Amino acid sequence: MKKEFKKVKSVNGELDLAGDKSISHRAVIFSAMAKGKSQIANLSQGQDVISTMVIMHKLGASIYTKDRKVIIGGCGFKGFKNIKTDLDCGNSGTSARLISGLLSAQKHSYTLIGDESLSNRPMKRVIDPLTKMGAEFRTDENLSLPFTITPAKELKNITYEMPIASAQVKSAIIIAGLHSDNETVVIENEKTRNHTEQMLGLPVKSESGKIISSSSLKYYPNANEYFIPGDISTSAFHIALALLTPNSELRINSVSLNPTRTGFIEVLKEMGANISSEEIKYSSNEPYGNIVVKSSQLKNIKIDPEIIPNIIDEIPILTIAGLFADGEFEIRNSKELRVKESDRIESICYNLKLLGLQVEEFEDGFAVSGDIGKTNITFESFGDHRIAMAFAVLSMLLEDGGEVNGFECVSISNPKFEEQLNSITS
Ligand code: S3P
What we know:
By secondary structure, the protein is α+β, with helices and mostly antiparallel strands. It is built from 14 helices and 22 strands. It has helices at about 20-35, 45-60, 95-105, 115-120, 125-130, 165-175, 195-200, 230-245, 265-270, 310, 315-325, 345-355, 385-395, 415-425, and strands spanning about 5, 10-15, 35-40, 60-65, 70-75, 85-90, 110-115, 135-140, 145-150, 160, 185-190, 205, 210-215, 225, 250-255, 275-285, 285-295, 330, 360, 365-370, 375-380, 400-405. A 4-stranded mixed beta sheet has the order 2-15-17-16. It has a 4-stranded mixed beta sheet with strand order 4-5-3-14. It is globular, with a radius of gyration of 21 Å. It binds shikimate-3-phosphate (S3P). Shikimate-3-phosphate (S3P) binds near residues 94 and 336.
């Protein structure tokens, strides 16, 4: 589906966003693992979290909605059903990797599948540590989905130093580790999002620049009442549009302000953005609050490699902000972008070149210079929700607007994207 966007004059008003995608996946999985009924308020409405819910339901969790909350009746410790049908993760890397950890410690074998994009994404990163823990993966030489997981007969506890910065891999190991009395330890050299640790209340320490988290049966989740704060990664698109449009002021209520996720706001502030946050509250150890964004003139800065894992999902929209900032935009140390829902370095560079910009592509990033020369452009989403939303925002900033091809993929994280934009733009 091709969608047209016109230039907006101003962005004003306030938004309440559906729950954060990362926190939502975890709340659904932990609820399905727990014995008894959990309640989840403000769950993400994106397709990715639906994929996780459908899998948990197939495994035996009861799921229904009551008073706008999702109620999940969990299966209890190793209580998942023995089902032989495939478990479909759709487009969701988080579902595939976190659920791989979960299934590595059950009683029965299960098969995970995914869509074309997910079936091309690397899974060796979870297969390696989970195999060390005793699980067996049956897959082809590409080490990607589909695969069948035969759980460990007796889970081996490992101390695993992460070779890449990945919260999904860390979480897979931690979730498997919840099924043993003995400690499983994950060591990170780079800080990644910490929702799994926060929501389970795991012990985490820092030693000589490394972050060390451990899990064991003691931290196995109980039934809980969750409130999922608004999705900060979703809000990034609205924030950028408000910042870059004159005469704008936008307020976003109850959005996640977990410090492992707010790097985008820190980078924008360093670029000169007028963004303030207020009223920090906590739910399941996750901080959230309101943010207010006002139109700002930005300048490009050198982006610190250490912050990359914290802003990895926001790089497509940060690039758009960079196009309107003084100086040239450059992002490096971001090789992980190549293995997201699309090869995001390639997707972004392709679209930027359509504008007549000079784009230098590197294995781990890109640099952009020159001025936007061409207008009336049809951008490609490459079936990637964050690319579709980033270039929709760009279209709304261009004199002649623009179009985005394959726009339907926005439903992966935010099916209400257009509705929200309509409510805040004029
Ligand atoms: C996620 C972790 C990140 C992120 C993804 C969600 C999570 O992936 O890009 O959108 O919920 O743990 P990696 O851990 O693979 O970097």
